[in-house]
Amino acid sequence: MSHIAIRAERVGKSYIVGHNIAAADGNNSLREALTNGVRNFARKTRDTFAGRPVVQGDKVEEFWALKDVSFEIRQGDRVGLIGRNGAGKSTLLKLLSRISEPTTGSISITGRVASLLEVGTGFHPELTGRENVFLNGAILGMSKAEIAKKFDEIVDFAGVERFLDTPVKRYSSGMYVRLAFAVAAHLEPEILIVDEVLAVGDAQFQKKCMGKMESVGHEGRTVIFVSHSMPSITSLCDRAILLESGQVVLDGTPSAAILQYYKSNIDTPGSVNFSASHVGDHLVRLLSASVADHAGKPMLETALADSFTVSMDYEVLEASALPLAPNFHFMTASGDCVFVSVAEAARVLPPGTYTATCEVPGYLLNEGAYFVGLAMSSFEDGVNVHFYEKNALSFNVADPMAADATRGGWVGAMPGVVRPKLKWTVTPASN
Amino acid sequence: MIAAEPSRHATQVIAPGLADKHYWRDIWRYRGLFIVLAWRDLSVRYKQTIVGLAWALLQPLLTMIVFTIVFSKLAKLPTDGTTPYALMVYAGMLPWLLISSSLVGTANSVINNANLVSKVYFPRLIVPVSSLVVSIVDFMVGFIVLVALMLWYGVVPNWHVVALPLFLIMAILVSIGPGLWAASLNVKYRDFRYIIPFFVQFGLYASPIGFSSSIVPEKWRLLYSLNPAVSVIDGFRWALLGSPSPYLPGLWISCGVILLFLWVGLYQFRKMEKNFADLI
User: Fold this and answer.
1) Would you kindly state where each structural domain of chain B is located, as residue ranges?
2) Is the residue at A154 inside a domain?
3) Which residues lie in coiled coils (chain A) (predicted)?
4) Measuring CA to CA, which residue among B94, B91, B138 is closest to residue B243?
């Protein structure tokens, strides 16, 4: 039985924020500017003597970034923190890593904590790569002997041997983050707190980082991980906490938390409009896309048995002889490809707007969260990818536990990516 | 590997206003960071400069020449006994530069390390204290020049020189108190960024650097010693050049002022350091 590594009890954190109402109103006569200035000065002076922080603006307000947050994390748990921007994830990490103090409540932590809220904290541009490894290591809490022991491993991981004695200000941004992550990846704390630092480097290096993170998790360390990348959360964590406006909304399995997250959020939607972002090339441009139920209504969640459609609108900008083939890439929340579907009838289209729709039958995908990548390709004249928007859409497949749910009475989670309804027969053996 | 063995660490409780009972032990645990930060400040200090460390010599030497011309040649102020005027100025300039550069260094240390303070936990006291090291190294470089000057002028110190380390410690302590106080307030009110250099400028003339403190009338000596730099500078000259001994009641007053500031500075710093990350 593992003991409790972190216990948070009714933790709250408030900040004082200022609003500049006069500026927002657009009243900017000299007289008003002067009276506001005097009033601001008087308030700042008052605050100074009362020991309150000085806030810009003419009206101050208390803002609770976290409120009544309670949870327990056992040693060896790998917990993902998810939520929208401003939900309080980073604030919670700051409290857990003792960078700032909670306003209310208490947190007890057992074990040595290392927090990675940023890649390359304390890197000094004038120092060489070698010197920065020691500097950054010490800042993250490693002893000099520990760093010296792992130095070769760190350099090897980052792949910057040739530039070890160059000041890091001459590094490319890729080399810089690789070196920074490499130091962090060789920390060996009991509790590791990580904030979105994995989104660095090229795809190959990201994969390396994820692999490293997974092995850290499997060594029995407690990991708390904040990310907006749901695939990373599902592959790294065995538990997830969903925060919304500073409060814990759900604390459970990653898939349950991700499901809830998508249900309550519009920013990772069942439909996207691309008209402002110019996705595509000179030939064809992506306009919008959506997931809809069988009645054509946009949706975020479908039942296991129901069919649904994925469609995208695109504009052909130029006449050409290339037959365009729209295709959709269905991915699981952990980033594995379920299948790719390409429109069979690739056609040469005159300029104009078109809608490509793909119908996905019921009893195909298992319950869980899925992502759809939108692509347009052509295969004559070599393979051309005109656009590919990875994980642009997302939706959930829910299992309402209907009688025909292919469960045979089992009420737990059904493993697997697909949930086909297959024909079974059970007959007395004939012999 | 740490694996799933039970933790050797005691449970740490984080709650508002709760004093950290392991604070001083934590500082000792983070001594490695102290060394690394001091080393970083040192190695970065003279990067991409042409004369490098020589800057630590040029500043006191040039000031010495100017002060000697202004105070001795133009204002015709007397020196201490038979000590050459330039040497007397230099021996006062050196501790003053230590005091002023540590004061400016500590006062700005926390905001200069804002990126660290807002992203990693460590006992914050490490930052201002490690910033002192740069000033101390500059002092040592300047001290070598002092020794050379004394050889040049043929001034040999008497037994008083054994007290020099005490006055050196005193010089460092003079700046820590106000430095910590300003460093913590600087996080909240950036006004201190402008106040401190002004204060240092003022102190350059309020301390007996370009002149001997013996020209201050006897009845003002006690009041004058409220500036602890006075006793430190007098002490340096006494220990090295055989100048008259520091005014004793003044020395005690200076020590009292130093301790008071030390307490105020530490108190303010400890009170505010937990919220540095929110305020910075």
Assistant:
1) 23-279
2) yes
3) none
4) B91
pLDDT-based confidence at residue B2 (cuts at 50, 70, 90):
very low
| A109–B14 C-beta distance less than 8 A | yes
In a domain, A241, yes or no: yes
For position A118, what pLDDT does the model report? 79
Q: DSSP alpha helices (H): ranges in A195-329?
A: 203-218, 230-236, 254-263
| Number of domains observed in the structure of chain A | 3
Longest CA–CA span in chain A (Å) reads 104
Q: Report A:154-193 residues touching B (Cβ under 8 A).
A: 188-190
**Tell me, what amino acid is at A152?**
D
**Least CB–CB distance from B121: residue in A97, A118, A134:** A97
pLDDT tens column, A367-400: 888 888 899 998 887 888 999 988 788 888 888 7
* Chain B residues within an 8 Å CB radius of A50: none
Residues A109 and A238 in one domain: yes
B120 to A121: CB separation less than 8 angstroms, yes or no: yes
Nearest to A222 by CA among B6, B246, B34: B6
Q: Which residue type, as a one-letter code, is found at position A24?
A: A
SS3 state of residue A349 = coil
pLDDT surpasses 70 at B218: yes
We report the CATH number of the domain holding residue A136 as 3.40.50.300
Q: What is the C-alpha R_g of chain A? A: 27
Does residue A193 have a pLDDT over 50? yes
Q: Are A278 and A236 in a shared domain?
A: no
- In terms of CA atoms, which chain B residue is nearest residue A115? B120
What is the arrangement of strands in the sheet containing A325-332, beginning at the earlier edge strand? A301-303, A384-398, A368-378, A325-332, A337-342
Mean pLDDT over A231-260 rounds to 84
Residue A187 has pLDDT above 90, yes or no: no
Task: From chain A, pick out residues whose CB is under 8 angstroms from the CB of B20.
Answer: none
Specify if A359 maps to a domain.
Answer: yes
Instruction: Give per-residue pLDDT as tens, B156-215.
Output: 888 888 999 999 999 999 999 999 999 998 888 888 888 899 989 999 888 998 888 888
Q: In this structure, which amino acid lies at residue A162? A: R
Q: Do the Cβ atoms of A280 and A246 come closer than 8 Å?
A: no
CATH number at residue A289: 2.70.50.60
Please identify which residue in the block is written with the tokens 């040999």.
Answer: B156
CB A15 within 8 A of CB A61: no
Query: Do A255 and A365 belong together in one domain?
Result: no
In a shared domain, residues A100 and A176: yes
Shortest Cα distance from A94 to chain B (angstroms)? 8
Portion 103-132 of A in contact with B at CB < 8 A: 103-113, 115, 117-118, 121-122, 124, 126-127, 131
Return the C-alpha torsion angle A356, A361, A362, A367, nearest 10. Answer: -60
Q: Are A73 and A207 in the same domain? A: yes
Q: Please give the residue of chain A at the shortest CA–CA distance from B119.
A: A117
Q: Cα B33 from chain centroid?
A: 21
> In this structure, are A229 and A170 located in the same domain?
yes
Instruction: Flag if A105 and B3 touch (Cβ within 8 Å).
Output: no
Q: Are the C-beta atoms of B105 and B179 separated by less than 8 Å? A: yes
Of A100, A115, A134, the CB nearest to B278: A100
Contacts of A144 in chain B (CB under 8 A): 32, 36
Contact (CB<8Å) B7/A95: no
**Strand, coil or helix: A328:** strand
Same-domain pairing of A317 and A385: yes
The DSSP secondary structure of A386-419, one letter per residue, reads EEEEEEEEEEEEE----TTSS-TT--SPPPSSB-
Does the distance separating the beta carbons of B18 and A106 come in below 8 Å?
yes
Do residue A147 and residue A49 come from a single domain?
no
Residue A354 lies in a domain: yes
